[in-house]
Every structure is written in structure tokens, then in C-alpha cells.
Design goal:
Shape: globular
Largest sheet: 9 strands, mixed
Radius of gyration: 19 Å
Amino acid sequence: MASSVLCIGVANVDVIAHVDTGFLVRHRIDKGTSTLMRAADILTLAGDLKSPVSIPGGCAANTACGVGLCGIETSFAGMIHDDFYGEIFRNGFAPYNVTFRGAVNAEKSTSLCLTLVTPDKERSFVFSPDAASWFLSENNLPDLEAGRSTIVYTEANLFRMTAGTTRQSMVHAVIDKYHGEDAKIMLNLIDTEITVHQRQIIFDLIRQQKIACIISNIEELMALFSADAPEQAFEAASKIPQLFATTLGKDGAVLIHDAGIAAGKSPLDAARQGTVKASEIILVPGARPKTA
């Protein structure tokens, strides 16, 4: 039976708008970085934006869309609210042949990330850790089809999700539910700060062989290994049996497995295809490939 992919992560809508610097000052938004606000305040702020563009986002959700276009049976699990932005997020999967297996939080609004672009092209972000996405519960994780090989892709943001589980985090809940012969778990580090904070836990999961693949950019890989240079991080990763897939920006990507660069048709073909797709995605708004 053919493999399937389940992606689990932040269910987020990116709201992109052009503003002047005065707008940031009036709303006490830190320029060029991230500002935390209450979810209700973000909704009010979003309503004041001129001609905003709302695009479904989130690392795992975007990955699901890319995989779905490759003809692989793919689904996404995350949490939204039954509101305007929740519908935007839910409806964003259909063009990519991805099944939404998410949950609805009756109290928390759908997670938003405001991306405010000033005339100097600097981007400032506003989001809330009190929105629906961060309250995903272990009870919301869908069951897998018995006897079918499945790749479970998740993101390090789930280390910050603790409200819906009795385990250490939702990363641990995902691993406890899916780790086994029929499932391989991939973890995207997604953020250097999270990587540094969770470094020992990530190494524990690697040592216990709970994770099959670590995905990152080069800064996150260096943060994981406390490396001062990319070569140092590559050397450290080469001594670990798990597959490391690391992006290098304009220089493409590198695969590291056991004694060095992976030498297998399947991983290399996947890396080449991913690099091509990345070069296409960077040319359009949002982080999802074109469907036509």
C-alpha cells in the first residue's frame, strides 16, 4: 500500500499589509521583529489595515500543500476557530489535494500572523500565543490507517504547545502516538530560539530513535550543535544516524546521513525537487507553490 503523509503544526493565517512607520509607532509594534499581542487586539488591528491580503500559512500546513501537489495522499492536523479566518485556512487546502483533519476550538479565535511591510521593505510581525492553534490537544491527533506506511511531519513550534496534553509537550504527544514500525517522524526545527531552548530534549529524542529526520536551515543546524561554522555543524551531524536535511538559502540544500552527504537516489531526488519548488515559491506571496 502506498505511503501517506500527515503534517501536524500551527494552523495560521498570514495577513499581509503595507503600512507606514507611524502605524507601527501608534500601535506599539516593534519594527523588524515580532510583537506579541492578545488575540482580540490582533483581530482589531487586522480590521484597521488597508487592503490586507490573507493567505493560509504555517510551516507544516505549507509543507502539506507542497507534498499534496506531488500526488501523495496528504493530510494536515491543527486547530482553528469557526470564524472568517478559520474558513480561509480550511479552504486553502483544496487546491493542493490535502485533507484537513483539524479540530475547532469553540473559544479561541483562529491564529493570525500580521506581516506589516513598511516603505523601506522591512517586515514587522504581530502574533498571539493565545489563539486557537496553540491549544491543539493530543485528543485531536488523528488515527493512522493500520498497516500503512506514513510519514508524520511536525514542527518545533509544538514544543510550545502544552495546554492540550499531559506529556511534556505536543511534540512528545505526537511521538508517543505515532512512533512505530508504520510511521516515520520528521521534525522541522523552524526557529533558532526554540532550537537552543529545546536542544537537550531534541538530542534525547534523537538518541532514543524517536525521530527519523531533522529538517532545518543552516542557522538552526548550527544552533542545534552549538557550532561556530556550517562545516562544524555538518561534521557533528554526520556522526548521528538520523537524516539531516538542511537548507542553505540561495546555495540550495544539503543532506547529511551517517558518514556524510547522503548518496541515495530517493533522498537526493527529493532534495532536488524541494530546491526547485523553493525557488518557485519565493517568487510569490505566501509560502505555497502555485497550483496552475
